[in-house]
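A.,

Following up on our hallway conversation. Structure tokens first:
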């Protein structure tokens, strides 16, 4: 009976809104890792190197290496330049910040090499003309081992390239 009356009524009765209490504090977004809660980020000293070899215009070998240094020298060296990597690290869930940094530097090789390109790079070209006037060439492109400091800052990986 009530449903028939509601169908014929012009107005549908609404419950009176109740006053909701306001939250007492503003929710702060969660940090990526527990170390990110610290005021100063954990800086990880690493050595990165890269080498690519090509024969007749075709890449035949490539090596990208990230290593922990045997001796830490970052406290004595000056920063040559700084760059940051905008990487989607929201999906990376870990409590170990150093693991997250190494994972990102390993899996975002192109962005890291673009950062290191600002520094020193060497290219060696060897060309040889054979008796059939065919040119055989060999090119080596390399970044010598470069010492860096890497850390997470506001979900970006910041790379400080050190001057040796």
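Then the amino acids I'd put at each of the 164 positions:
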């Amino acid at each position: 009976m009530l449903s028939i009356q509601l169908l014929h009524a012009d107005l549908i009765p609404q419950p009176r809104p109740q006053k909701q209490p306001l939250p007492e504090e503003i929710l702060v977004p969660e940090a990526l890792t527990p170390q990110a809660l610290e005021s100063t980020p954990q800086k990880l000293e690493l050595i990165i190197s890269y080498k690519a070899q090509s024969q007749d215009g075709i890449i035949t070998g490539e090596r990208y290496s990230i290593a922990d240094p045997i001796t830490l020298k970052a406290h004595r060296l000056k920063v040559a330049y700084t760059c940051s990597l905008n990487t989607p690290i929201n999906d990376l869930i870990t409590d170990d910040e150093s693991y997250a940094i190494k994972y990102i530097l390993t899996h975002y090789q192109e962005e890291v090499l673009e950062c290191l390109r600002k520094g020193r790079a060497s290219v060696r070209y060897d060309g040889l003309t054979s008796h059939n006037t065919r040119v055989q060439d060999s090119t080596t492109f390399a970044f010598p081992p470069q010492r860096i400091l890497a850390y997470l800052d506001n979900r970006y990986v910041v790379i400080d390239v050190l001057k040796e």
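Helices lie at 2-8, 97-107, 109-116. Curious whether your intuition agrees with the design.

B.
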